[in-house]
Amino acid sequence: MEDKMPDAQTYEYESGVTKVAVPNDFAKSRRISNDSHLELSIVDQATGDEMTLGVDDFDVQGYGDEELIITLNEAVPAGSHLKVLGGRSRVGRRPLLHKLGMRVGEDNTSKIIPAPSITIKATGFQWGWTYSYPDFGDFEFDSLIAPKETVSSELFRLATTNDVVVPAGETVRIVTTGRDVIHAWAMPAFGTKIDAVPGRLNETWFYTENEGTYYGQCSEICGIDHAFMPISVKVVSREEFEAWVNEQADLNGLEPFFDTTDQLAAAEVPADVN
Ligand SMILES: [Cu+2]
């Protein structure tokens, strides 16, 4: 599963609609072909709250075809829009009960996840990591082991000088390479481990909805300081992420990437990132 990049797509439709045509233009083997490949929700535009529709709330024609026609029992209410997430990429365990007719995802162990919204390039070097964010003005920074006296004993040899910052609930593509010898970008909490090889690009991905900071380490013996190149990923809200991106842009002499005039004031900018 790690080697297959998530490819599900999200489509949004206005309030008032009852019938929508949804593209199903994946490769044939990846098409939406049953209700476990679809997730429909009604999103309140004011609050952002999502209410997931049950399979009995809509009817689908054209499973497996290039276009699906979805008919809702009730029109999308005013002040809301319809979000359709469709595709075969998932995270979580696929319950055995699915084979007995239970809808995948019903017990929250497995769910559809969208194609990556962010690509981060991680370059291993002796001894640390450089992270580039090509989608957001192409800033980059180095992440080195944090000085011992600055970290708690729990984070000894895990904390870094700069966290990788990503938004929760979005799929993140990680592209790895090496600047000198082979390293490996490993993040156990995400089930992610991939070699970072000079002259080659590898790619993998992760997805988490849980905000917090996660730690990993280089996992390919790369020289005398191999044990001193930790990896830290800070998962934040979308608003915090955008504020952080703008802060990075500023540090790199770039224009702000996101127009977050309101959000910047409201969002908590992670204090330990610079
Ligand atoms: Cu190493």
From TrEMBL:
Keywords: Copper, Electron transport, Membrane, Metal-binding, Translocase, Transport. It is found in: Membrane. GO terms for molecular function: copper ion binding; cytochrome-c oxidase activity. Residues 115-247 form the Cytochrome oxidase subunit II copper A binding domain. One of its GO terms (biological process) is ATP synthesis coupled electron transport. Its main location: membrane. The keyword Translocase applies. Coiled coil: none annotated. It holds the Pfam family COX2. GO terms for cellular component: membrane. It catalyses: 4 Fe(II)-[cytochrome c] + O2 + 8 H(+)(in) = 4 Fe(III)-[cytochrome c] + 2 H2O + 4 H(+)(out). InterPro entries: CcO_II, CcO_II-like_C, CcO_II_C, Copper_CuA, Cupredoxin. Its EC number is 7.1.1.9. Belongs to the cytochrome c oxidase subunit 2 family. PANTHER family: CYTOCHROME C OXIDASE SUBUNIT 2 (PTHR22888:SF9), CYTOCHROME C OXIDASE, SUBUNIT II (PTHR22888). This is cytochrome-c oxidase. It comes from Parvularcula marina.
